[in-house]
Each structure stands twice: as C-alpha cells, then as structure tokens.
Specification:
The chain is 42% helix and 16% strand. By secondary structure, the chain is an alpha+beta fold. A 5-stranded mixed sheet has the order 7-6-5-8-9, sandwiched between helices. Strands 1-4 form a two-stranded antiparallel ribbon. α7 packs antiparallel against α10 (298-305) and α9 packs antiparallel against α10. The radius of gyration is 26 Å and the shape is elongated.
C-alpha cells in the first residue's frame, strides 16, 4: 500500500511539473530570435533526485527549460524557476513546516532522523547536522525579525496572548509573548514573538517599548485575555489604544464558576451577548444574564459585568470586523496543537530554539491567514471614522453630523 501511495505521489508531482513547464513555454511562445526561432523551449530533464514528501521519498526528474531571453535591466539571462519544486530542493515545503511543530512537541534534535525516516521511508536530505543547522538558521531569522524596523507598517488592530509551553525545558515553562496585527490593507501579520516571564507587566512593557522604538505606531484596538500584565503595559506604552477582552477566555472563566448542569444554558446566554445585533442588544443580554444567574452564581456573572465596557468594545467598529475582534483566535488556532503540552522530554532544550521554532510555526501559518472581512474599512478605522451599530456614519474627511453616509 505504501508503494502505491508513493507511486501516486510521484505521478502527481511529475504531472504537475510537466504542466508548469508547458505553461511557461506556451506563455513565451511569441519570444523569437532574429531567425524566427523560439527563445524559450523545453530542453530535456534534470538529473533524477529523491524528494521527501508527506507520502514518502519519491524520485523525480524535473523538466529543464532553455530560456535564451535577456533581462534588459540587468543584462543577464532569464531563468525558469519552478514554484512547485525549487532547484536543489530535497524535501517538500510541508515537511519543513513539520520540523518546528515536532520540536515544540518535545522531539529532540537527535530523534528527528530516525523518526522521520520511519515515517517517510528514507533519510535523504536529513541528518542530525542538517537539523542542527536549520535550528541555528531559524534562531538567526527569529532574532533578525524581532529587531526589524516597524516604521513603514501600520497595524490598526492587534491580537496579543501569552503562550505557556513546557517543552524540552527542565527549568520554568517557556512563556511566548505573541503579537499579531492587521495592516491598513486588512492583511494579518506577525508583529513579534518573544520570551517573557509569566506574562508580567515588565515583560510585556519591554516588548511594546521595543516595538515603539523601532517605529511601531499605536494600534487603534488591542485584543487579548484578562491578564493584567499586558493591559498595564499597554496603558504605559500606547495609552491611546483601546482595549478589547477576548470572549473565548472570558466565557471560559464564567463557565468555570458554574456547575456543569448550568453550563449549556449559560453558553447560550453568553452567545446572546457577543453575537448580538449591536451594542444596545448586547447590553440587554448582559442584564438578562445577570437576572438569570446573578443570585445563585454572582462570581460568574461578575466576570462579565465588571468588564462589560472592554468586552463590548468591538461593537464600536465595523460589523464586518466583529467576528475577528471578539477573540484572539489567530493566536489560539496557530498554537492549538502545542500550547497544552506539559511533558518534559529527555534533555534540556534551548529557550532560543523554542522561540525560533515558534516563530517558524507562526511564519508557516501566516501564509494561510486570510484578510479580515471588508478590508477596505480598516484604513477608515485608522483615519478615525465613526461607526454606529457596525455601520459607517461619518467619514474621517467630513465634519458635522449633517454629512452622514446612508
């Protein structure tokens, strides 16, 4: 069965490469020399090589292209570069994404080769030195990322969370301080990932100060859980940024204070609040929650009523963005497979390596993040536009309440 799967993967990869080359040649069929001969033609195949894929090691012969065109700006020959299988690649990009995940799950560097060899059926392109070299390279990339300039990027919204991992570390758990932002064009992007100390105010303040020194502008809204460390740091470094508490964490805190028999109905009552038609209806749902549960379980209800302003802040922004601003889901979903890992595996791991692996994990996930709904409205939020019931009522370049947009 394994051989059948690998044969199928080999055939699919070969067909994809052939189609890619055929499309490239056809796209430049009108490029001719002075004798009327094509400048872009097929030219056999490269030497066969093994490539590691999720289906195992497969042997492929990448088609070769002879491109005689000259780049007018540089004067150099143009070359065909496969987007499916880059030159000299020995493993698929998906496999490269698996390595950081396995490290964060507790796999030691020396265990990668035998573990992946059993899974893939080959150790081609893998060795302990290869894994060590990749780890060092990723540490350098993570360090460079956290020192880059932020002056040219405007993050309008920001999600923050502290991810506690006890992986391959015999000392205290690694606490990752993660910040993900929404650019003015609506795309999501990692802002920073750094080592912190139990989500303390000083740890968050150090990270926020670093971002500010490197040119980061104060976000309009920050979304996070109820950890007091971040909010105290935010008020110190970016005092103009509004606060939005995460409903995923808030709902969990409420349910933890209720008996199991009351939790199903309470979930529905909480959903009535954060899925309300607008803030007015949400406040009405809060009063209903207080009336139904406040007498028997005042501590549970207090977790909502004492923070109602920062829990309902998202209603002041475009309705299309509400689903994005209610929770820290971009961070939660990325770390869902590793954040609850508690077992310490053999041998202490490096905190720098842990940060680097987390950075690569987010970097990989970032390519699959979609932009927020109605991305064109993000720039209006930054410009100070007013929204009522989720709808735009005043453009930032307009003055006076008589100039309203229907």
């Amino acid at each position: 069965m394994d051989e059948i799967v690998r044969d199928g993967a080999r055939a699919m990869l070969a067909a994809a490469l052939q189609a890619e080359v055929a499309a490239y040649v056809a796209a430049h069929a009108d490029a001719l020399d002075e004798h009327g001969r094509r400048l872009v033609v097929r030219n056999g195949s490269h030497v066969q090589r093994e490539v590691l894929t999720a289906a195992g090691a497969v042997a492929v012969r990448v088609p070769r292209v002879n491109d005689k065109r000259i780049d007018e700006s540089t004067g150099q020959r143009l070359r065909f570069a496969s987007a499916i299988l880059p030159a000299w690649a020995r493993k698929s990009r998906r496999l490269a994404e698996v390595l950081p995940l396995l490290y964060l799950h507790g796999l030691s560097t020396g265990d990668f080769v035998p573990a992946l060899q059993q899974f893939l059926g080959s150790d081609a392109g893998l060795s302990a030195s290869t894994i060590t070299r990749l780890t060092s390279q990723w540490q350098e990339e993570a360090a460079a990322f956290n020192t880059r300039s932020l002056a040219g990027t405007d993050y309008v919204y920001m999600w923050v969370d502290g991810i506690h991992l006890k992986v391959r570390l015999q000392q205290e758990k690694l606490c990752l301080l993660v910040m993900i932002g929404v650019r003015a064009d609506g795309t999501k992007e990692l802002i920073a990932v750094a080592d912190g100390y139990r989500e303390s105010t000083e740890s968050w303040a150090d990270l926020l100060r670093s971002c500010k020194r490197r040119g980061m502008r104060a976000p309009v809204l920050a979304v996070g859980d109820g950890a007091l460390g971040f909010w105290a740091a935010l008020r110190e470094v970016f005092p103009t940024t509004k606060e939005q508490r995460c409903w995923f964490h808030a709902g969990g805190n409420v349910l933890n204070c209720l008996p199991k028999s009351a939790q199903p109905a309470a979930r529905g009552a909480l959903a009535e609040i954060f899925n309300a038609e607008d803030k007015t209806h949400a406040l009405r749902a809060v009063k209903m929650l207080q009336a139904d549960y406040g007498v028997k379980w005042p501590k549970a209800v207090a977790k909502i009523t004492e923070h109602v302003d920062v829990l309902l802040a998202f209603y002041d922004y475009p309705a299309e963005h509400w689903v994005h601003l209610r929770t820290t889901n971009p961070i939660e979903s990325t770390f869902a497979t590793v954040r609850l890992r508690q077992r310490v595996t053999k041998g202490p791991g490096s905190r720098k390596a842990g940060i680097a692996m987390a950075f690569k994990l987010i970097e990989s996930a970032q390519t699959r993040w979609r932009a927020v709904n109605a991305p064109h409205l993000v720039a209006l939020v930054r410009a100070g536009a007013t929204f009522q019931k989720g709808k735009l009522v005043e453009r930032p370049d307009e003055s006076g309440s008589d100039q309203q947009v229907a």
